[in-house]
């Protein structure tokens, strides 16, 4: 290998590491923490209502959908702001080639989960199945980035998929849950358990790591 080829190979490796670092920051730990806290607060309020009323609170209907879309918009907006600041600090564009690669990987499962989940809520009033679909599709979206994501994000994807499948079996096998007058409350609790606690755990793991995971060698 000539000196020029050797230099080009080094540049390629350096660029690859930089792209991995950018993708890692594309799923910001602070934004995950914020989204997780909002989800836990929302689910906790539902649990408090159930305790006060001694059973299911009043149905939310489509308001359930707008509530969680609002949390998604807030968390995503904070994520973009943090990404923009990090990109400006490093003198890089916000939407790099690595970011485009990540978006291409996560878009199909998120599109399927989003459209089918909203349809289940709006037309079939089945909030539990909608949330379980969101959980599994979100996990699949994270796993679609496995070839260029840090290991903690891949583990998070597997946790979402495993929880979504396990909760689906529990739901399908329990006629008491399936035959409830409405399922807004248990659906809120599922969202708090998955998108809430799992994101908080992920953010805590990243914050507690001794050095940036994006540049840590994969095990």
From TrEMBL:
The chain crosses the membrane at residues 21-46, 66-84, 105-122, 128-146, 153-173, 185-208. Coiled coil: none annotated. Keywords: Membrane, Transmembrane, Transmembrane helix. This is Lysylphosphatidylglycerol synthetase-like protein (DUF2156 family). It comes from Prosthecobacter dejongeii.
């Amino acid at each position: 290998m000539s000196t020029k080829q050797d230099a080009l190979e080094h540049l390629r490796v350096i660029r690859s590491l930089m792209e991995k670092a950018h993708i890692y920051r594309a799923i910001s730990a602070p934004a995950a923490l914020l989204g997780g806290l909002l989800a836990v607060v929302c689910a906790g309020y539902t649990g408090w209502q159930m305790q006060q009323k001694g059973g299911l609170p009043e149905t939310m209907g489509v308001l359930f959908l707008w509530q969680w879309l609002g949390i998604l918009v807030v968390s995503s907006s904070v994520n973009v702001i943090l990404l923009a600041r990090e990109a400006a600090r490093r003198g890089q564009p916000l939407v790099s080639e690595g970011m485009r690669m990540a978006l291409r990987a996560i878009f199909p499962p998120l599109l399927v989960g989003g459209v089918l989940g909203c349809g289940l809520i709006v037309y079939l009033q089945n909030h539990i199945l909608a949330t379980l679909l969101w959980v599994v599709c979100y996990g699949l979206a994270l796993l679609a980035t496995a070839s260029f994501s840090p290991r903690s994000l891949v583990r998070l994807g597997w946790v979402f998929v495993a929880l979504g499948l396990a909760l689906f079996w529990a739901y399908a096998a329990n006629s008491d849950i399936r035959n409830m007058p409405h399922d807004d409350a248990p659906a809120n609790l599922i969202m708090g358990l998955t998108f809430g606690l799992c994101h908080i755990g992920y953010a805590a793991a990243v914050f507690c790591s001794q050095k940036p995971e994006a540049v840590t060698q994969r095990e």
